[in-house]
Specification:
- This protein has 292 residues and is an alpha/beta fold.
- The chain has one domain: Rossmann fold (3-Layer(aba) Sandwich).
- It has 7 helices and 10 strands.
- The chain has a 10-stranded mixed β-sheet, with helices on both faces.
- Helix 1 crosses helix 2, helix 1 packs across helix 6 and helix 2 packs across helix 6.
- The longest helix is centred in the N-terminal third of the chain and has 22 residues.
- It is globular.
Length: 292
């Protein structure tokens, strides 16, 4: 186990993200609403478009949530120079036609949404990110075996997806996700969870969220981060802003910093960034970091 001064590392990262945040405010990058069509269905897309962007991130929100409820995370990517495109899925309680769709409709609709957004904005390659249900969607784009859906015949894995960022992905779920599902993850990936990140329904342990990491092939490009005391919503900083908090904003910045390092190393193929990434401490100051 490698040990470095994690406190100093995190301090530098937080100073960087603070400067990036104020840069984003100064740039005036605010989301605009776009519309795509798939299978005669309107797909609203929230787009944070950066001039001369360093890359494109496609983001899938958690169940019942919405893209704008992740602004505390997305703003950090935007401030670092990335354009972000996030569809509003039909399972969102904010979707204008949510009541027209049942629970069984959500997965095929998400597959269609992300494929359509990738065709529109990710033709030259992209980073795919998501939280919770959306993290599973991101992992599927990176090669994880998604539940097959009749009538959705496009390949679930997308070679244009160069990096996966999965925040609190689900573990095995009967009839939907198996232990074996994660053994085909073929894309460089970052998986994040926290020790208070109890699975939906309050059953099981937080470390179920690491199944994607533990069961993925050990190819030297899979990473995981565990943040002590962090819950599924970072205290309401993402996904559920109505929670009483307090927001776990510093922990969210730590996770965002790591996601940007993963992007530098694998999307931009920066050898210096890769070397730095592989020298991270394994355990220090409330953060556990794993690499395989």
């Amino acid at each position: 186990m490698k040990k470095l001064n994690m406190r100093r590392l995190l301090a530098k990262g937080l100073l960087l993200l603070c400067s990036l945040y104020f840069s984003a405010v100064a740039l005036g990058v605010t989301p605009q609403q776009l519309h795509l069509t798939v299978a005669q269905r309107d797909v609203p897309v929230w787009a944070w478009v950066v001039d001369d962007a360093k890359g494109t991130i496609l983001f899938s929100h958690g169940a019942f949530s919405a893209p704008w409820k992740y602004s505390d995370l997305i703003d950090q990517w935007v401030a670092a120079g990335y354009s972000v495109y996030a569809p509003l899925h039909v399972d969102s309680t904010d979707h204008p036609h949510n009541k027209d769709y049942g629970q069984a409709d959500s997965w095929p609709a998400r597959l269609q949404d992300m494929s359509r957004v990738a065709d529109a904005f990710g033709k030259d390659g992209y980073i795919v990110a998501g939280h919770s249900y959306g993290a599973y969607m991101a992992l599927v784009k990176g090669g994880v075996q998604g539940m097959q859906v009749p009538g959705v015949d496009q390949p679930y894995q997308d070679p244009r997806a160069k990096v996966v960022l999965a925040f609190s992905p689900p573990g095995p779920m009967p009839g939907f996700i198996t232990e074996q599902s994660f053994t085909t993850l073929a894309t460089p990936a970052f998986i994040q969870t926290g020790t208070a990140d109890i699975p939906f329904g309050g059953h099981g342990s937080w470390d179920a969220h690491l199944t994607a990491f533990h069961n993925a092939p050990a190819e030297g490009n899979k990473y995981a981060m565990v943040l002590d005391g962090v819950d599924h919503y970072f205290g309401g900083a993402i996904c559920r802003p109505e929670l009483p908090g307090p927001k776990q904003s510093e922990a969210l910045k730590t996770a965002a910093t790591m996601s940007l390092e993963i992007i530098d190393a694998y999307y931009h193929k920066d050898e210096t960034a890769l070397e730095k990434l592989q020298q991270h401490p394994e355990v220090a100051d409330g953060v556990t970091f794993m690499h395989k």
